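Can anyone check this?
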Amino acid sequence: MEPIVLNAPEKYNLRIVQAVTEQRWKLSILGPALMHPKNSKARGLALETIARAEHPTLSGDQKRFSVRTLRTWLAEVDAGNLGGLARKERTDKGDHRQNISRQWDKACPLPEAAKTEIAAELEKYARSLWAGGAPSAKRIEQLSTSKLVELSLAAGWAQAHAKNCLVSRHFVERYREYGLVAIKERNAKLFMDEYTPRIQRNREGLKPGDVVIGDVHPLDVIKAHDGREVHARLIAWLDLATYDIHVTPILLEKGRGIRQEDIARSFIDMVEAWGLPRCLYLDNGSEYKWEEMMDGFMALTGLTHAFEAFVKAASDLGEMIDPDIATPQPEARALIRARPYNAPAKQIEGVFGILERGFFSLMPGWIGGDRMKKLTHKVGEAPRAYQGDTKEFERDLNTCLELYRNTEQADGSSPYDKRRAFYAQGWRPIQPKREVFYYAFSEVKNFKVRPGGIQVGDTWGMTDALIPMIGKSVDIRVVKWDRSHTFYVDGTGKMHAIPMGNAYGHGDLNGAKEQSRRSGLLNEHIRVLKADTARVDLLAEGRRHVEAQPPAPVLPEGITIDFNGHGEAVSAALSEATDPPPRLLPGQQRHPNTGEIFSPRPQEKGPSDAGTSFGPLKVLFARPDQKEKPNPEPPMFDPLKHLSAKSRKA
């Protein structure tokens, strides 16, 4: 029995959730008209009724739609093209709307072919400036503007000047990635530190050894876990065709609840065991109704086109279930000593009630369905918890489920009997590839690509498609339920798996080979970028730009200001005041009036005629180490004394 395999799409729609939402919204409006045959009068009347009413839009506003619009939508539905109800992706996405800028495109009178040629040459010029190592986008704007003037003049536009040929920052930023060429050729350290791809090494030598209803149920078995007594949560999926049930037990840590990744992992395990359900019904009040989870189911709907997910109230789900079908035969109930089934208000719980009382009650630690009246081993004592480890607990739980799957129900067949019958009739499962689930049940996060790749938590990952993106920030799809991979969808819609944690041990030669291979990929990318550029002399381009500018302004003749004709005298005085005085030699002096430098005559020495008076105090207090200088220096010239003597003579 070969399964039906749905291949992954060649191109992924990044707006898949919004597209499915828009399709369903339009179908809900067209509903009354779709009930009538195509081209019938009743359908036309229904369309007129719809057009007269206001309808809530996706944004919550009220709006009316014309009959013409409604007929356009109906045409897509009648043609079987539900995708046509969603907004189409732009086919010109990424194309430039102008040659260079709105201003230049509007002002330039040249033929369109000439404009296109100028734009192509200017684009290459801008790329070349980036690749040549221009210091900034501002400088490239400046050089590109003068280059555009030059090209426009050469093409025959005589009125081209810097204002109508102004190149915008937006134009320049288109080609920033070509700066990687300059970094590679001009800044080896920066290129090595920030851009060269690297492998990660670690110190440890660790090795890695048709309708389904979903609900979450707390198991009535007490389990000893990490010093506490807990109740496992069962993420359950019930197949209405066979009444088989797929269960994923979750032992919650303290303060932790069921998470999105738990449900996604359980759902994918169910799909791998059973195949993809065509319709999935989820309880409106359970843990399934999370925005992120529903977005995942909607994305899966858009990817496979063979799956639908619905959120229903518990009463609606109950109407879909016939508890008597799931109830075992009386003989089976007697064998397992189960109490008669009594359907609770939430009818889906009836199936869990059968499982609890008929099968899970075999496990140690089962306390019954009423937690206010727990079953105990001894009166007055607390119930004894299940003491086995997690593997033993899951083994025993699976044993109970296998008993249920092999037990005859009210219709005389077991869930396994029903499955065997369907398989014999030629039923085949639908099994999407695992990457479809990776894409649907993931969240988008923005990461900066570093030389070592991207870091998610404490784990690094790298793939070849990310090497040209080193230094940029990209959107990465992080798969919470499987940390072994993350995913990158490039601009063409192609998905690239990013292995996580693929580190190399120290001394592993394969690591050096991988790093060399990644460096080769980066160099090849740089060569591709460089092929779209031309080598430029930045200084020559700066000189060319300066020569294309108007001449520098000439300072006009100014007004001379004089001090009433004494300007020359003031200038002379200032000049003299600024001359430094000549340096005096030892023994020379400067005359205070004339400024003349002279050397005083030495005085002749002879015997003194006057006697030396005796000073007893001087003799008593004289210090023995003090000696009278034999030749005292002559007194210095005192200009104040000289001036005062001169004034007395006058």
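Reply from J.R.: I decoded it. Residues 103-199+522-550 form one domain.
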